[in-house]
């Protein structure tokens, strides 16, 4: 197939695009700079220079492709509308990338018993209403085999172009910079987690098998932030994890990341991915943290 991937130099898009090339597909990937073009080209991805604001470019690439994977942004409504408009009535595949902060709360390190599967109704916080509406617009797009994959906290080493995930690298960088590994508040908030290799496997499976209108949570495991940050601190030799107050967290990372990316609970169960035959191979973010941050030569 000819597949157009947005975010082709990013953590998710780069992994998916690289796996598509390895599977024999012809992949064109949206990138924003010459350096990123060189990076994706090294993995067999044909670079398309532009941004999500280039709606005419997105429409041309979508119309010329057999399938489109939007992995650049979960929130850019204009870009999504451009892709939907170009594909409407074609019967082609559109896979849109969302994130499970749509079920997130404003717990700032406190725990929650709320767990969501795909059948559970959503009552998003005001910050996430637009994302939920965008997911719905993709699923309801006419004449498209549209699929929304809603990823939980993704961990793992990059597959393809060098890139980093969203949440754990920020906590690791903070620990290295300050010499103290910190979680927000008590760190008892929990997120579902998934390894990037398993994410990429699911995108390829969804491209092949997912029916139109599919919405699937993507998860394989769950961790409290205190446990993940403890693994960071111990492995870096910094000792026990310590709390960070909410005001300091917002000052460092901004409201969106502090409240919904690092301080919230986002616990989901993905039944629909497994119904497609997805069988994730990894289930522990903490194990990956300890392996990835271990000193060279450590047993």
Automatic annotation (TrEMBL):
GO cellular component assignments: cytoplasm
**Which InterPro entries does the annotation name?**
Epimerase_deHydtase, NAD(P)-bd_dom_sf, NAD(P)-dependent_oxidoreduct
**A Gene Ontology molecular-function term?**
aldehyde dehydrogenase (NAD+) activity
Q: Residue limits of the NAD-dependent epimerase/dehydratase domain?
A: 3-210
Protein name as catalogued: NAD-dependent epimerase/dehydratase domain-containing protein
Q: Whose protein is this, by species?
A: Sphingomonas sanxanigenens DSM 19645 = NX02
């Amino acid at each position: 197939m000819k597949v157009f991937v947005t975010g082709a130099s990013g953590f998710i898009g780069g992994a998916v695009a690289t796996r598509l090339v390895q599977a024999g597909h012809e992949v064109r990937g949206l990138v924003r700079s010459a350096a990123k073009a060189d990076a994706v080209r090294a993995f067999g991805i044909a670079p398309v220079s532009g941004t999500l604001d280039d709606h005419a470019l997105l429409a041309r690439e979508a119309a010329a492709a057999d399938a489109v994977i939007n992995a650049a942004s979960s929130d850019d409504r204009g870009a999504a509308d451009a892709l939907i408009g170009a594909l409407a009535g074609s019967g082609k595949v559109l896979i849109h990338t969302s994130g499970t902060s749509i079920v997130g709360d404003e717990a700032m390190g406190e725990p929650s018993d709320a767990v969501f599967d795909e059948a559970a109704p959503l009552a998003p916080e005001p910050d996430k209403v637009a994302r939920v509406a965008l997911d719905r617009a993709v699923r309801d797009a006419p004449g498209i085999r549209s699929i929304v994959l809603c990823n939980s906290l993704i961990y793992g080493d990059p597959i393809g172009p060098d890139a980093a995930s969203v949440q754990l690298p920020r906590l690791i960088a903070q620990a290295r910079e300050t010499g103290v590994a910190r979680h927000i508040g008590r760190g008892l908030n929990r997120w579902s987690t998934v390894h990037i290799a398993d994410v990429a496997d699911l995108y390829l499976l969804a491209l092949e098998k997912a029916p139109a209108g599919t919405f699937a949570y993507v998860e394989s495991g769950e961790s409290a932030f205190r446990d993940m940050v403890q693994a960071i601190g111990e492995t870096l030799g910094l000792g026990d994890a310590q709390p960070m107050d909410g005001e300091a967290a917002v000052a460092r990372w901004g409201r969106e990341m502090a409240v919904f990316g690092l301080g919230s609970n986002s616990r989901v169960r993905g039944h629909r991915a497994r119904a497609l035959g997805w069988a994730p191979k990894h289930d522990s973010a903490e194990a990956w943290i300890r392996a990835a941050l271990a000193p060279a030569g450590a047993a």
